[in-house]
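[Q] Does anyone have a clean structure-token version of this?
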Amino acid sequence: MSFSTSILARLALLAALAAGPAFAQPASVSTGTAQPATRPSYAYTQDNLLADLARQISDRYRASGDVKVELLRPWTAPEPASEQIVAEIVEAPANLASNLLLRVKLVSGQTTVCDTSLLVRVQLIRDVWATRTPVERGDFFNPTELDTRQVDVLRERDTVAAAETNGELTYTRAVPAGRLLCWRDVAKRSLVRRGEVIEVAAVEGALSITMKALAMQDGSAGDTVRVRNLDTRKEFSALVVAESRAQVRF
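[A] Here you go.
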């Protein structure tokens, strides 16, 4: 084979390789049909329901404390919706109690998903006082000598809530250590006592006149008691404001 023939053969081979396969693969052709957009889907679980009910029960009854809710009957979750689902309490008893029968609607946007009745158990958890050591009748109430415990005040209804008390109480009976404190164990401490000579301030605007008077009855802070002027012996009513002190406003 001559040199020129060899060159021509190589050129022919390179041309064939550059041309690619004899039959090209067909290109994909768009049909022009758009794929449908995926709509959002919102599920609503039992945890969602209980959270909605707890919040609305707390608001509806102005409950002070931590509200916990439990379903007493089986409940079936709704199918997922295109908008978020929320529960709305439509009907409820007038007073908060441990067991409530509620009429509840599940709403997604402007659509009512379902309207049903639910029987629920409610707990209202609050801090209440408990005795750390024994106390005796007549002892002054002292919060620093007590412990707090968290209880369901819907079941322990007579317990003394820590947020609702101050030092102006006295024990009406002996209470052993380690017991929850009840309202029947305490009473408002008398700041004015019958037969005691107290100070009474007669107040009118910025003017104040103080006199001595005889208390005709016991009284706690905020109570109105009858007192007798020591000079004129006239009786009148005065508001107890502090230890051995009362006030009259004109």
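[Q] Thanks! Anything notable?
[A] The chain has a mean pLDDT of 87.
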